[in-house]
Amino acid sequence: MSATTDYQDYWINPRIKIAALWASTLFVFVYVDLFSLFRRDVRADIESGKMFAFTIGQGFLLGMTIYILIPSLMVFLSLTLPVRVTRIANIVLAVLYAITIAGGAIGEWNYYILGSVAEAALLAGVAYYAWTWPKATDAVAAPSAESPAGTRVHPALKVRGQPLDTRF
To answer: What is the C-alpha separation between 23 and 51, in angstroms, rounded?
Structure first.
């Protein structure tokens, strides 16, 4: 006797996916940078007032704050900006951040490279979901005999051709 279990999988709005990817990217940012503070060479550079090729000062700290502030804001803005704007912003920013992350990983330790690869993969997800954003005609199926009259059911909300009960 074999029993099969069908699991319902609801369609997730690309805005939520993109916001979650930005939030995950920020977690990796924080932890990789936090782990760097365990390195004696990084601490020595900080104590001498240098970080990579930069002098640690107001301009450097302002620039780093802006660098982190942008993805922090993208968590919210991905949920609220008009679709056309959010798509473009997410694609452009994900590519730009991936380039800066790849550049920052050159010559680094393995933990930093692994974190950078994870960040780049998350940003690739941001760009992918923004690029493949469903068109309005794709996201809403025409009313049919399978859906109650006058309601529209997204194709992903159907299991075996039948609309799911989305009333909670």
So the answer is: 25
